[in-house]
Amino acid sequence: MKKFYPIIIIFLIVTLLINTSTNFLLRYNINHQFLNAANLFLLSISIFSMILQLKAMGNKNPNVFIRSVMSSMLLKMFCSMIAIGLYVYTSGNNFNKKGVFISLFLYLIYLSVEVFTLIKLNNKKNA
Q: E strands of the chain, at which residues?
């Protein structure tokens, strides 16, 4: 569980920022509910991805870990694209372009934290 702390901390910080700046977001026509949903979505796929990668890290064959990292990143990218596509399709005229761009920025933050955490864990394993 301790391995997931960095991602959970990012989730809590982003949630706190979104919920405390609701008036600011509304002033710039950014849907805070969409951002909260995107943040929760990114947390869930990041945890799922890390579980896959941590399992592969325990394998003696290093190729398994590389395949796991590549496939989980591809899976996260496709899931994110599908989620954005569904949002665009279902939102109609209420589409919030600024919210989508902010959620893509959040995607990069989650990805960076996940990679940093895995590198740190891999270095501890090899030390």
A: none
Give me the mean pLDDT over the 72-94 stretch.
Answer: 91
- Number of neighbours of residue 67 by Cβ within 10 angstroms: 13
With beta carbons less than 8 A apart as the criterion, state whether 3 and 117 touch: yes
DSSP conformation letters of 6-30: HHHHHHHHHHHHHHHTHHHHHHTT-
Tokens of 55: 């399992």
Supply the DSSP symbol for 60: S
Identify the sign of the CA torsion 32, 35, 41, 44.
negative
* φ, ψ of residue 78 in degrees (nearest 5): -65, -40
Q: What is the pLDDT of residues 27-71, one digit of tens each?
A: 999 999 999 999 999 999 999 999 999 888 888 888 888 898 889
Q: Which tokens hold the place of 120?
A: 């740190």
What's the rounded Cα separation, in Å, for the pair 4 and 102? 23
Q: Quick one: tokens of 24?
A: 């600011």
Helix (H, G, I), strand (E, B) or coil at 52: helix
Query: 10 with 20: CB under 8 angstroms?
Result: no
